[in-house]
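subagent[fold] <- orchestrator: predict structure for attached chain, return tokens only, no commentary.
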Amino acid sequence: MKKSFINRAAAKFFAAGTAAALALGFALTGCSSAADAKPKIRIGIKYDQPGLGYQDGREFTGFDVDIAKYIAGKLGYSEEQIEFVESPSANRENMLSNGQVDMIVATYSISDSRKKSIDFAGPYYVAGQDLLVRSDETNITGPDSLNGKNLCSVTGSTSAKKIQDKFAKNVNLVNQNSYSDCVVALNGGVVDAVTTDDIILAGLAATKANKGKLKLVGQTFTTEKYGVGLPKGTDKCEAVNKAINEMVTDGTWQRLVEKNTEGTGYTYNSNNNPPHPGASCA
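subagent[fold] -> orchestrator:
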């Protein structure tokens, strides 16, 4: 009887020990997985701007994409840790405020109105607003020749409104969801011109579908400073600006501009570029 009792007690002790060991093993495995998991950085980009931010299947290409990768690398993230998120113009401030993205690199012009709700690092590029027209267009020579014309831009952008306010009060503004949609309307004769920054228009004109059909007017009339959008109150401006300055110094900035505008005849304004941001937010 006594021996049987001892055996049963030993069995219970062994079973309890095994269960505890298994539980500890699962706990350690969970901790190990959490420790090994690499953090992601979510970066908002455009998906519909050839030469800047463009999605082709699972691939993302363009100047903004390359800029984002470089900055993320300097912040300690590999390309595998980057999660690109589509950031339409009208949604960008909300996406930063709601925590949907950690930063936005999407031809995002720095403006006082936007700085009320978000912060900007940069600029990383200084563009100029221009007009894209059909290749046989001769009457549109600048923003002041747009009265009575149909001008397309995207919802949430400030480009078309600037022309109406400063150059052509009687221009008819047409909003589309994307610049690609604006180009479709331009090729179809629905609108007479598309306006946004020159480097964006150059990318659109350079695509296979549009080559030879469209042209830039070539008269820039604004200065658009592209910044890296960050959540309000961020402490990341200094680190991002340091990355931008290093990109200029090591020659990467120049190489990326040339890579993403090759064959378009586009040249940037050397009076404003390359930029050299300071340590603080823009």
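orchestrator: received. Logging for downstream: The CA atoms of residues 144 and 167 lie 5 Å apart. The chain is about 35% helix and 20% strand.
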